[in-house]
Specification:
Length: 351
C-alpha cells in the first residue's frame, strides 16, 4: 500500500484512502487514520503517533506524509466530493447502486444468451463425436426449449453482444474508477492459461470419471454452441467472416470485462463484506477463493478441471497485482489464443 496522498472522510461508514487503495475503519477521521496506519506494517516509527492525537483531521481534508522527516500533517481543508464509490458523483445512479457496474452487463449477456440454440445431436462439433453420431437427429435444429433453430445462432449471438456493449457503455463511468494499467505478468498468465486449458480439455478426465457412474449427461449441461460459421454460412462468405469477427470481438474483449467485473469485482468481494464495494480489490478469504473457482466450474461442467486450474491461476494473479485490468487482460489473452486454436485446428467444441 503506497503513501503519496491519503484522504480521510466521514460518512455513513467511515473509510480512508491510501494512494487510491481504500481502507475502511470506524470512528472519527483521526481514528480512521490510526487504523489505516496500523494496517500498513513496516512504516517509519512515529508515523501513527503523528496521525493520531497530534492531527486534527476534518471531513474532506487531505492528509499527506512528508517523506523528508516522516512527519504527517493535515494540510488545509481541500474540497472533496463525498461519494459511495470514490470519484463517482454522490447523487449518480452508479454511486447509489454500485452493483450496476459489476452485474448489469453480465446479467444482460446471460439473459440473452439463454436463447442461444445448442447444437443438434450428431453435430460434428460436439466434444464426443462418436456418442453424438449414435444419437437420433432432432426434429428441430438445436432446439433449446425456445424453438430457436441452430441456424439462427449468429443472429442471437450478435444481438447478445450488441445489448451487452450497450450495458457496458451505460456503466462505463464505473469501469473508469479502476485505473487502467496492464502488467506483463497478466499476458504471461493468459498465455500459460490457454495452454493449460486446451491440454486439460483434451484429456477429457471429466467424462472418464463420470461415465462409469452414469453421470456423463451432466457434462452436456454447459455444452458450447460449437458453431462453425465457415461451414454453416459457406453460401454467404461475407457474413461468415463478419460473424467470425464478431465472435472474436465478443470472446476476446466483451466477455473478459463483464466476467471479471462480475466474478472478482463483485462476487468474490460480496462474500467477504456486506458493503463489498468498499473492500479493496484483490482482498481474498478462503471462502472468496473457493467461490471464485467453484462458480466458474459450475458454468463449465464439461471442462471442470480446466476451469478449476484456469480460474485459480487468475485469482493468484489478482492477489499478486491487485489490479482488475490484469485479470481482464489475462482472460482476453486466453480467449483470443483459444479462438485462434479453434479456427486453425477445427476444435469448434471448445468455442
Amino acid at each position: 500500500m503506497s503513501f503519496g496522498e491519503k484522504k480521510a472522510t466521514k460518512g455513513k461508514e467511515e473509510f480512508a484512502f491510501f494512494g487510491g487503495n481504500e481502507v475502511w475503519a470506524s470512528g472519527d477521521a483521526t481514528e480512521m487514520a490510526l487504523v489505516a496506519c496500523q494496517r500498513t506494517p513496516g512504516q517509519p516509527a512515529g508515523f501513527c503517533d503523528g496521525v493520531g492525537t497530534g492531527a486534527d483531521l476534518k471531513w474532506g481534508q487531505i492528509v499527506t506524509k512528508d517523506a523528508s522527516n516522516n512527519s504527517v500533517n493535515s494540510g488545509s481543508a481541500t474540497p472533496w466530493k463525498k461519494s459511495s464509490t470514490c470519484g463517482l458523483p454522490a447523487d449518480g445512479l452508479l454511486a447509489r447502486h454500485p452493483w450496476l457496474t459489476f452485474l448489469l452487463p453480465f446479467l444482460v449477456y446471460m439473459a440473452v444468451g439463454s436463447f442461444e440454440p445448442t447444437p443438434p445431436p450428431g453435430h460434428k462439433g460436439n466434444a464426443n463425436e462418436e456418442q453424438a453420431a449414435d444419437e437420433p437427429a432432432a426434429e428441430t435444429d438445436g432446439d433449446n426449449g425456445t424453438r430457436i433453430r441452430y441456424e439462427h445462432y449468429p443472429l442471437i449471438y450478435t444481438a447478445k453482444i450488441a445489448l451487452t456493449i450497450a450495458a457496458m457503455l451505460f456503466v462505463l463511468p464505473g469501469y473508469r474508477e479502476f485505473p487502467f494499467r496492464i502488467s506483463p505478468l497478466a499476458i504471461v498468465v493468459g498465455v500459460a492459461g490457454v495452454v493449460l486449458w486446451i491440454w486439460l480439455c483434451q484429456l477429457q478426465l471429466e467424462r472418464k470419471a463420470l461415465s462409469p457412474l452414469g453421470l456423463e449427461k451432466l457434462l452436456g449441461l454447459g455444452e458450447r454452441p460449437a458453431y462453425n460459421p465457415l461451414e454453416q454460412l459457406a453460401d454467404t462468405p461475407g457474413w461468415a467472416y463478419t460473424f467470425l469477427a464478431i465472435r472474436f470481438f465478443g470472446l476476446a474483449l466483451v466477455v473478459p470485462i463483464i466476467e471479471e467485473f462480475f466474478l472478482r469485482g463483485f462476487l468474490m468481494r460480496y462474500v467477504i463484506a456486506e458493503r463489498w464495494w468498499k473492500l479493496p480489490f484483490g482482498t481474498v478469504t478462503p471462502l472468496s477463493v473457493a467461490v471464485g473457482t467453484l462458480i466458474p466450474m459450475s458454468m463449465h461442467p464439461g471442462e471442470l478441471l480446466a476451469a478449476a486450474v484456469w480460474f485459480t491461476l487468475v485469482t493468484w494473479l489478482m492477489t499478486r497485482t491487485r489490479n482488475i485490468w490484469d485479470c481482464v487482460a489475462a482472460h482476453a489473452a486466453t480467449n483470443l489464443l483459444l479462438g485462434v486454436y479453434v479456427v486453425t485446428q477445427g476444435a469448434w467444441h471448445l468455442w
